[in-house]
Amino acid sequence: ARARHVRAVDAELRRARRTRGALPDEGATPDAPAGGGARSLHDAKGEQQLPGDLVRGEGDPATGDAAVDEAYDGLGATRDFWRTVYGRDSLDGRGMGLVGTVHYGQQYDNAFWDGSQMVFGDGDGVIFTRFTASLDVIGHELAHGVTELTSGLVYQGQSGALNEHVSDVFGVLVKQHHLGQDADAADWLIGAELLVPGVQGRALRSMSEPGTAYDDPRMGKDPQPGHMDDFVVTSADNGGVHINSGIPNRAFYLLATALGGPAWERAGQIWVDTILGDIRADCDFARFAALTVVAARARYDDEVAARVLAAWQGVGVVP
Ligand code: ASN
Ligand code: ZN
């Protein structure tokens, strides 16, 4: 009965995503130019109309517009990361084209995945600069695409915090891979390049020390917990999806540094196996932790699995 239920939910989710245009129709051949994660960058020119004017397609030369060119390079680095490290061809595993829009809105202080494409604001210039400035933020937004097309983690409460967590994990891994950095040499920050000089902070989030990324009169203090004892119960932010993600984020950091070497290798692979495996869209922290332990044992051995368990114990998800 559960298997049938899962299949029914799956079919429902796929239908919903297809209706929103995120998935190609079953049996349809992807457009040739879009195969292999071909990029197309658009300029919204300060409006909020998507996708905006096409300004740079795959293989086109740099435009000289920093936002366009950073987005082009960041989408490329993220696509190449998924392909070379995990053998995944673009977000859907089938070479889906990567669409991005920059200069979205006026002084727009965010970047997001809209269900079928990436969108980047220019920032207000006072606290935030343009959102294409951080490769980990580009990797974060693209990972939302992977999640939406696969596990479908519901963007609310603990499953929503896991959705955010998965995006932070693959965001930092894209950056660490790009820089060739081992786990213990990395800064584990998300969005460090986005903060205008003078802001009292280092980044949007810290995966190694959640809650310490910023403390500025204009932004308040970083609200992220790094342990279940400090789990935040709130109705804001879809039940604190960008807040409680600090807890699994720190578990991933603890694991990656305990294993040593490049975090995208064993730790990242375990997370990939988990999110592309048999995971429910309403997965909570405890269930996710159990799935990662199982994935670690399946791909590696009991010793690695024990390290995964220890990381979750370190943040109080496993007693
Ligand atoms: N930058 C945010 C994110 O990707 C935007 C949002 O909250 N949807 O999570
Ligand atoms: Zn996000």
UniProtKB/TrEMBL annotation:
Signal peptide: none annotated. GO terms for cellular component: extracellular region. Extracellular zinc metalloprotease. Its cofactor is Zn(2+). This is Neutral metalloproteinase. One of its GO terms (molecular function) is metal ion binding. The lineage of its organism: Bacteria, Bacillati, Actinomycetota, Actinomycetes, Micrococcales. Its EC number is 3.4.24.-. Residues 151-317 form the Peptidase M4 C-terminal domain. The keyword Protease applies. Belongs to the peptidase M4 family. It is found in: Secreted. Keywords: Hydrolase, Metal-binding, Metalloprotease, Protease, Secreted, Zinc. It is an enzyme of class 3 (hydrolase).
